[in-house]
Amino acid sequence: MKRTTGIFALIILLVWGGCSKADYNIPGQKQNFITFMNNAGYAWDSVGGVYRVHLLAGEGPQAANGDSVYFNYIGQTFSSRLGDTFTTNIKEEAKKAKLDTTYLDFSPKGVRSGDGSLMRGLESGLTGCRQGDSLLLLITSDLAYGDQQVGYVPAGTPVTFVVNVLKVKK
């Protein structure tokens, strides 16, 4: 009996270990971003796996690790085009998107650059930003919410953020 239990446990471990997270076609998501940006005529770059469009170039200080960055944002889903707004800290945008504003904070988001408090894609997209920048960040699902459904965003969904960098504090 003991040997049978051990063999059964080994089989369970092998099967469980062989299971991988869902494949959300990250290369396909990246290609959709590139097609969208090229069709829109955007000049873009990539940083840390995130596609970044500079909608407006700021002239203020550039953020480095450890600096405080304050910004406003609008988060949207993406499926070959900008989709539905699922989060924002801009009250007018939240009302326009018919979001439940009960628990939303409408003050600028403040983070310490490089501290890991943001989703990986948003953190990467803000790398080296300048005070005054307005950025469109296109983030594949693996750098966004991954296999988690978060609020209105289904698991495996690529997202975008329009970010307006209000202040970089050294």
DSSP helix fraction? 25-40%
Averaged pLDDT, please? 89
Order of helices and strands: HHEEEEHEHEE
**Could you describe the largest sheet, including whether it forms a barrel?**
7 strands, antiparallel
Q: What structural category arises from helix and sheet content? A: alpha+beta
Rg, rounded, reads 20 Å
Give the number of helices: 4
Q: In percent, how much strand structure appears in the residues?
A: 25-35%
What general form does the structure show?
globular
Which residue ranges are poorly predicted, with pLDDT under 50 across at least 5 consecutive positions?
4-20
Total beta strand runs: 7
Distance between the termini: 65 Å
Describe this structure in words.
It is a single chain. By secondary structure, the chain is of the alpha+beta class. It has four helices and seven strands. It has helices spanning 2-18, 26-40, 91-96, 120-125, and strands spanning 44-47, 50-56, 68-78, 82-88, 109-112, 134-139, 159-169. Strands 1, 2, 3, 4, 5, 6 and 7 form a seven-stranded antiparallel β-sheet that branches. Strand 1 and strand 2 (50-56) form a beta hairpin. It is globular and about 40 Å long. The termini are far apart. Mean pLDDT is 89; it is low at 4-20.
